[in-house]
Amino acid sequence: MVTGMTEAQHQAARRVAWVTGASRGVGRGIAVALGEAGWVVYLTGRSSAAGRTTRLPGTVEESAAAVSAAGGTGIGAICDHRDDTAVAEVAGRIRAEQGRLDLLVNNAWGGYERLSAGTWQAWQEWTAPLWQQPLELFDAMFTGGVRAHYVALALCAPLLITTPDSLVVTVSVAIPDADLGASGAAYAMAKAADDRLAQAAAQQLKTHKVASVAVHPGWVRTEGVMLYAGHLDLTGSQSPEGVGRAIAALAGDQGLLSLTGQAFAVEELAARYHIDVRS
Fold first, then answer.
1. SS3 for the chain, per residue?
2. What is the pLDDT of residues 152-161, one digit of tens each?
3. What is the pTM assigned to this prediction?
């Protein structure tokens, strides 16, 4: 306990975050960076000690342990974000155990499962024109990504509204108009929808002093991306923890509400807050 503080003051000083899709990759990096800053972090994902969803390493239990090792308090919970009841249970648990939520990071994403094979065939499918991609890829992105973000926010909004200066971060990707085709039609549509969710939520939450922004990482050296490192130019790429440091700095901005409704590239946040996002 911090010297000179009452228990109530100490609890109020402990910022609480929920990072979805945190078994590995960007989500895990964000959670660990928040742990370094002393946050209480709830982490959710499908991969657990009981079984992983892909051949990639990482579980919610391991990520939670990494948060605690970094100096925060990591609390892992197995959650399939396509299951509204499971998401509601986590939101209810945070309310019961913490009574506040300072930061929701909507990072869970569907559609990468086939890429996790790490094969040239999987890469060709990912970059193929829409008529050559399986239709379930579209469904995976919108159900396990966009809809999952919408549901988590809808269920957490009442708690965010009662927490002063809280923030919602929607992890998305900026896709220039010239690259829409190369990125895949389904992927481009889903990420555009995520950005619009962040904007619409910002307008509705601002009167309650809750900020909502989209954050756009560049190439991030996640476990999945590194499977294809031989096909990508990762010069200047970001680390998962670097993305997390950018979000942790954003959450501590005293003028946070003035930023609501915007989309920020991680490199832009790095320059704004003078932090390293590459190591």
1. CCCCCCHHHHHHHCCEEEEECCCCHHHHHHHHHHHHCCCEEEEEECCECCECCCCCCCCHHHHHHHHHHCCCEEEEEECCCCCHHHHHHHHHHHHHHHCCCCEEEECCCCCCCCHHHCCHHHHHHHHCCHHHCCHHHHHHHHHHHHHHHHHHHHHHHHHHHCCCCEEEEEECCCCCHHHHHHHCHHHHHHHHHHHHHHHHHHHHHHHHCEEEEEEECCCECCHHHHCCHHHCCCCCCECHHHHHHHHHHHHCCCCHHHHCCCEEEHHHHHHHHCCCCCC
2. 999 999 999 9
3. 0.94
CATH class of 7-273: alpha beta
**Per-domain residue ranges of the chain:** 7-273
